[in-house]
Amino acid sequence: DELGLAPALVFVLIGGFTFNFCIVMSNTHWDSALQRYVPAALLGRVTSIDYFGSYLVAPIAPIVAGAVLLRLGPGPIFLIGGLVAAVYWVLAMVVVRPDRRVLDTTSART
To answer: At what angle do helices 43-57 and 6-37 cross, to 10 degrees?
Structure first.
């Protein structure tokens, strides 16, 4: 309590759960879009390039975020990050438009 962690713990837990839920949802949509729109013969190559790009950017992002944080402060970072995430989510839902109907499994690709 004297460290100041107790009042924020609930918000951190809720934020962590929400963040991880959104990651799972966006990865599910992304993987579904890859499987739907990339030809089966190229799916392995496209997926490997996708993973390579993700792993390439992962160490760079915290460095850039730290530099921007020092310049702008935490308030604008959270606002910009939230807006980018919201715009990304809306665009992903518009572009991918996941079907919610039951698929015919007899015509599925092998």
So the answer is: 150
Report which of 104, 110, 95, 101 is spatially closest to residue 37, judged by C-alpha positions. Answer: 95
Q: How far apart are CA 60 and CA 57, in angstroms?
A: 5
Cβ contact 92:29 at 8 Å: yes
Residue 31 token pair: 């993987």
Q: Over its length of 110 residues, how does the chain's per-residue pLDDT go in tens digits?
A: 455 555 677 887 888 898 889 888 888 888 888 888 899 999 999 999 998 988 888 888 889 888 988 998 888 888 888 888 889 878 877 776 656 554 555 555 55
Q: Which H helix or E strand runs over 80?
A: helix 74-96
